[in-house]
Amino acid sequence: MDVERDPSRLDDDGRVKRTGNLFTATTHIITVVVGAGVLALAWAMAQLGWIPGIITMLIFASVSLYTYNIIADCYRFPDPITGKRNYSYMQAVNSYLGGTMHVFCGSILYGKLAGVTVGYSITGSLSLVAIKKAICFHRKGHDAYCKFSNNPYMIGFGILQVFLSQIPDFHKLTWLSTLAAATSFGYAFIGSGLSLATVIQGNGQPTHLFGKKIGPDQSESEKIWKIFSALGNIALASHFATVIYDIMDTLRSDSPENKQMKSANVSGITTMTILFLLCGGLGYAAFGDGTPGNILTGFGFYEPYWLVALGNVFIVIHMVGAYQVMAQPLFRVIEMGANMAWPSSDFINKGYPIKMGFLSCHVNFFRLIWRTAYVIVATVLAMAMPFFNEFLALLGAVGFWPLIVFFPVQMHIAQKQIKRLSLKWCMLQLLSFVSFLVTAAAATASIRGISKNITKYKLFMYKQ
Fold first, then answer.
1. How far apart are the C-alpha atoms of 299 and 289, rounded to whole Å?
2. What are phi and psi of 315, to 5 degrees?
3. Highest mean pLDDT range out of 339-353, 375-389, 401-415?
4. Total domain count for the chain?
5. Are 282 and 196 in contact (CB under 8 A)?
6. pLDDT digits (tens, 9 = 90+) for 17-61
7. Rg (CA), the chain
8. Given this model, what pLDDT does residue 140 score?
9. Inside any domain, residue 228
């Protein structure tokens, strides 16, 4: 019997039954959250110090868990169990908060997705260069001149993404997401393990409870700016709101999706927090005030060179998969909009079968041209601004307050009909306001850092 005619093979919205579960949802979360930004957390810890650093990471994790559970409850409207599905974050905002907020959310959400793909291009290329540098330092000595242009590696990364971006369906990315999640553990543990080995060998550098002290090497204002930038790095590492509904839309319906997603949130965020504390704490213990922006590409470690190189190989593999997990929702919304605007256009809607040996696929010319053009633009932007910590901090700042706190809080108030000026309403608004201050401070610091670097380096001429 044809799938479309067999009700037993369809979900309540008429689509083919979803097959995702707690494991696949957790895998998607880890793929997005445990990115290479985790390797910048040691630098963030160095700016904050032991006490503020650990407390800040735990606070971000707690806020994230609370608000992501709120988002999970808003997957269906108006009832979280039996209501109509919201297939995207924007659709949920529209259902609960109306059209104006829908537009505001969309501009931030898809701007953030676009920014993240640029950030992943930067991270992937830096790790490719780091592989070559590890081999160079091993062969020529640790004081050798081993600097290389990032541009060829960014171009190569972009060419690969052009091919992968032609995958038409987010649901078909589970294999890539699983591989990326596995490699994320690989480089996180390599970075942590090398840091731990440095400490055990007695080569760890002095650390401080409240970060690098003010003195000849760092002014008071510079310390404040670095603290703000560190908050942005931690905020980015806590972020997967951009794809949460894409993940939920893969979950099977034999159990309420919000309950499954809440369990996945606990699993994913717990894993995330443990890795954050390990990488941040051990990296800081190893390098102290001189902690590099990325403990694997900043060459705090030289030997064993093959392990440093392997860690960077894992980063590249993870960036390849995470790029697609983040880009696919953006691809989909543009293509859905084009389909609605020109429903009778063969260029936009028709697929042409192509067979090459054992491989066969359907090529859609609009998808081919638009996705290729997008990857090219993202690659060029990455080549122009290859500044790892500053760009990550900006991405974290832009997305934290609106997507992780503001919209979830407002949707929760609307869904639960929380009375204005009640105690709970006031506490939720206070959480939102404090989060806004964090976002504003981190964004300002990261823009300042990018501006300083752009004036320091010529465009497209940066060498690592």
1. 15
2. -60, -45
3. 401-415
4. 1
5. yes
6. 888 888 888 887 877 776 657 778 888 999 999 999 999 999 999
7. 23
8. 86
9. yes
Contacts of 260 (CB under 8 A, 6+ apart): 21, 22, 25, 251
Pairing mode, if any, of strands 359-363 and 76-77? unpaired
Q: For 354, phi and psi rounded to 5 degrees?
A: -130, 135
Cα angle 91, 97, 99 (rounded to 5 degrees) comes to: 65
Beta bridge partners of 361: 354
Domain assignment present for residue 422? The answer is no
Residue 171: band (very low, low, confident or very high) from pLDDT cuts 50, 70, 90: low
pLDDT mean across residues, the chain: 84
Count of residues making up the chain: 464
Domain that holds residue 39: 3-337+364-392
Give whole-number Cα distances, 282 to 41, 195, 285, 309, 311, in Å: 10, 5, 5, 19, 16
In a domain, 175, yes or no: yes
Q: Is residue 411 part of a domain?
A: no
Label residue 1 by pLDDT band (50, 70, 90): very low
Tell which residue, 276, 244, 238, has the closest CA to residue 53: 276
- Burial annotation 315-334 (CB, 10 A radius, 16+ → b, else e): bbbbbbbbbbbbbbbbbbbb
| Residues in contact with 453: Cβ distance below 8 Å, sequence separation at least 6, in sequence order | 385, 387, 390
State the CATH number of the domain containing residue 254.
1.10.4160.10
More confident position, 277 or 391: 277
Whether residue 116 contacts residue 98, with contact meaning beta carbons closer than 8 Å, is answered with: no
Give the integer Cα–Cα distance in Å for 18 and 422: 40
What pTM, to 2 d.p., does this model score?
0.81
Characterise 202 by phi-psi region: left (phi > 0), alpha (psi -120 to 50), beta (else).
left
